[in-house]
Amino acid sequence: MTYEEMLERLFAHADEGYRAFHGKLLKNPSIKLIGVRMPVLRALAKEWKKELGNILTFPDEYYEVTFLKCACAGMLPFREFTAVIDGLVPLLDNWATCDCFTAPCIAKNREAFLPYIQKYLADEREFVRRYALVTLLHYYVEKEYLPLVYASVRTCTDEQYYVMMAAAWLVAEVAVKYYDDGKSWLKEKCFSLGIHNRAIQKARESFRLSKEQKEELKKLRR
To answer: For residue range 89-142, what is the model confidence (pLDDT) as tens digits?
Structure first.
């Protein structure tokens, strides 16, 4: 498959209304969108996953092309995935591609993937750091990894909006899944103001917490 053939397939699925809608959500006018809906992109990723080596050579002219690179890579076995991830994470320039860049192989290789988490969390680029936090959210909100999650959020500030929001989302998930731990963290007031209050807001939106728990969290707002 050539780049031109890929674009021909993508433009055949273009939806102008969706393109305009999704463009507003991304809040970055420099990103070029074709307007292909998510189910179609995921189906194309499954169809083209064996062509990843070729697809990685294509220019990142459109949002959908970069998305497909990440989606195809996410289907790889762990060793093959880690061989390409350092070339993909720097391409992330929006929350949607970042948050959808998942790799089930990480779930069975959490310890082996930790150096990547630490490396990306220490990066100065906003969406590289967000990728580290979202990966923690997807695969590490387990009792044994709570100290890691706690330490990771402690490194975050409110300076980068999408990092702050991912950190808050992560703390909220801990509060929902391990309520006493999450509440204890919030009572310490050890996170930035934005992360602290947005984590409480996000947790209180969950159907998994009781009314009483939500009221307890509300009282912890700063």
So the answer is: 999 999 999 999 999 999 999 999 999 999 999 999 999 999 999 999 999 999
| Whole-angstrom distance, CA of residue 126 vs CA of residue 95 | 10
Is residue 162 very low, low, confident or very high in pLDDT (cuts 50, 70, 90)? very high
Q: Which two tokens stand for residue 43?
A: 């189906």
The pTM for the full model equals: 0.94
Helix/strand/coil percent split, the chain, to 5: 70, 0, 30
CA–CA distance, 82 with 195 (Å, rounded to integer): 30
Element (H, E) at 154: helix 146-154
Q: Averaged over 83-93, what is the pLDDT? A: 97
Cα gap 104→217, rounded to integer Å: 32
**C-beta neighbour count of 180 within 10 angstroms:** 8
Q: What is the share, in percent, of the chain residues with pLDDT greater than 70?
A: 100
Q: How many angstroms from the chain centroid is the CA of residue 205? A: 19
> Would you tell me how many other CB atoms lie within 10 Å of the CB of residue 187?
11
Kindly give the interhelix angle for 193-204 and 179-188, rounded to the nearest 10 degrees.
150
189: left (phi over 0), alpha (psi -120 to 50) or beta: left
